[in-house]
Amino acid sequence: MKFLFHSIFLFLIAASVVTYLFLSDSKKDKPVVHWVASATEVRKAQAETFYRWLEKNDYPDIEIQFDAQSKASDIVKTIVQGVSGVANDILDCNGETLRLYQSIGLINDLTEVAKEMGFEGAMTYPGVQSDLYVDGRQFAFPRNVSTGFFWVNVDAFDRVGMAVPPDIWTIDEFERMGQEFVERSNQKGKHQTVFFRRHFTTQDRILMLRSGGVDFFNETLTKSNLEHFTYADTYETIYRWTHDLYIIPTLAQSKELVTGTGSGVSNIYIHLFANGSYGLMPGGRWGLMYFREIGFKNLSVSELPHNGFRNSDFGIGAPAVYEGADEKEAAYYFMKFLASEEYNMDIVKNADGLPPIPKYTRTEEFLRPPDHPSEWGLHDRIRQIAEEIAIVRSKSPFIISDTINRLEKNAFEKFEAGRVSAKEALRDCAGRIEKEIVRNAGKSAKLSLRYEKGLRDQEEIEGLRKEGKLVPLELITNPFYRRYYVEKGWALPESS
Fold first, then answer.
1. Residue 137 within any structural domain of the chain
2. 3-state DSSP of 375-431
3. Phi/psi at 34 (5° precision)
4. Are the C-beta atoms of 361 and 354 separated by less than 8 Å?
């Protein structure tokens, strides 16, 4: 026991020394900004670009340090560090975590400093701006932007004598082409080793649902649309593709493919796609970083298939400044750097998503990267998808995405296992989500008022729709429906 206490005592001393050396900048002669990011070659190169940018513009000398031990996805750890006063200066957010961190006072309101220093949210893509703001106040700026589509393995289609999928196609065309692809790619009577695309996730199912004009949430984000008949149809279609037509692998088959590769490639699905196990791979422009790494070049791009409404998702990596940061001024310069030509051209060259400022997607370096001629033609198609059909994921302030993903995944797995029908699985899931929304809405007076207003607005929207009248756009808070109503001609302009 005595030995144990001594060991703990020595460990605490050592931990205190390490923490002091890591977190304390009191001995440094310049400000140090800590950023939650792994010290990859890409990040190191961005830090070097940052230093050159500071020197070129005669800005203060600032050092960037990466905290690879923390992860942007570790929300609980970030909150614990934040309320304890020891979080990193730069916190990486997405649209949902930004709202969570803002609600508990963890991140700094950047609205005024963004105007002053030139990194306003209006500078980035209109489709992602809603993920940077809370109640009209700016709290982040993108380090990159991503939109979804299918990478197409041209070699895999050439091998079986098929043309690659078109730029724009329907769900029915996807099914017909998928059947033909797997039939030609696998020997009859043999174990299937080639599929059209990998298994579906919750977000994949939501994107398919949206292509039929229905989102996961209603117009005011106060209730799910799980009981809409389109959702049950989506479940049944995916089941048919998996268990009747064998276009899509089961989860067990997916795991078998992964186990059988023995690959050391950092992204296993890139490897499976490149070796022809999948003809298509859902992804984003960031995939090129991996394709370049393994020397895979014969690619084309197709939109996600639609069922009447073309759409894709939009996502951002969005650094925000910790409210308790010791080096706020230095952190502001880093935010300004994200809007600079130097940083945006770094993203253009390394293909880590789309650059934060849209105008750089029209540069010669973006459209025709000199070191990668096989990619010419791909980048502009990705830009078009981002600018024309991408919509950010809907995020209700009354329920977190982790809960949604868990409950929806469980519902689909129960249905796929034959334990319940699609309608039964979705009805049960809808009830659970409804309870969670109501419970969370009652946690604070502010949320409760917002929820009650949302219910009133939803009732008004549904009443106007029944009467065949146009709906004021400001009643709609779901970004999907804001776009959908405009395209369908169902909405009045804002503030009409």
1. yes
2. HCCHHHHHHHHHHHCEEECCCCCCCCHHHHHHHHHHHHHHHHCCCCCHHHHHHHHHH
3. -95, 130
4. yes
Which pLDDT tens digit goes with each residue over 291-322?
999 999 999 999 999 999 999 999 999 999 99
Structure confidence by residue, pLDDT tens digits, 382-431: 999 999 999 999 999 999 888 999 999 999 999 999 999 999 999 999 99
One-letter identity of residue 229: F
CA–CA separation, 89 vs 335, rounded Å? 11
For position 126, which CATH number holds? 3.40.190.10
Residue 36 lies in a domain: yes
57: Cβ–Cβ under 8 A, 6 or more apart, which residues? none
| Cβ partners under 8 Å of residue 177, min gap 6 | 162, 165, 169, 196
Q: What angle do CA 477, 480, 482 make, to 5 degrees?
A: 55
User: What is the distance between the alpha carbons of residues 271 and 269, in angstroms, rounded to a whole number?
Assistant: 5
The neighbouring-strand residues paired with 316 are 145
**Predicted confidence (pLDDT) at residue 265 exceeds the cutoff of 60:** no
pTM score of the predicted model = 0.88
Let me know if 90 is exposed, middle or buried by CB neighbors in 10 A (0-12, 13-18, 19+): buried
Look at residue 215 and tell me if it is in a domain.
no
415, two tokens:
């249905």
Residue 460 lies in a domain: no
Query: In this structure, which amino acid lies at residue 224?
Result: S
Number of domains the chain contains: 1
C-alpha span between 152 and 274 (Å, rounded): 10
Closest CA to 180 of 163, 200, 167, 155: 163
Q: Which of 186, 156, 200, 103 is nearest to 416 (CA)?
A: 200
Question: Which residues constitute the domain of residue 130?
Answer: 22-145+315-376
Cβ atoms of 35 and 89 within 8 Å: the answer is: yes
